[in-house]
Write a structure and sequence with these properties.
Blueprint (H helix, E strand, L loop, with lengths): L42 E7 L2 E8 L5 H11 L5 E9 L4 E9 L3
Antiparallel strand pairs: 1-2, 1-3, 3-4
Length: about 100
Amino acid sequence: MTATTCSSTATGMRGIRRSFDPYLRPASPASKGDRPICYGDRLFARLVMHGRTVVEFMVNSINDLSELWGELRRHCRGISGLAKLYLRNASRGWSMEKPLMLYPA
């Protein structure tokens, strides 16, 4: 186990993080890891179920991935089942595909 620096008031434990100390994770953006999304990026989203395209749209006015989920929910009301989401950020040059389970309202 490697020691990490952390403020501790216990005697003799200064600078060493004990395993039961609360660990504070750094805040992470709501974007997908190494694939950032910024306002103004041109995103193409396509939802495919059973080999056919159910929903396809383009947005450029969202800030993060959570806003994209809201936009996607709005476009596919009443649809339920296992689908695959294809997402492409044309402004930043990345794409991803992700399985997605849709539940009825």
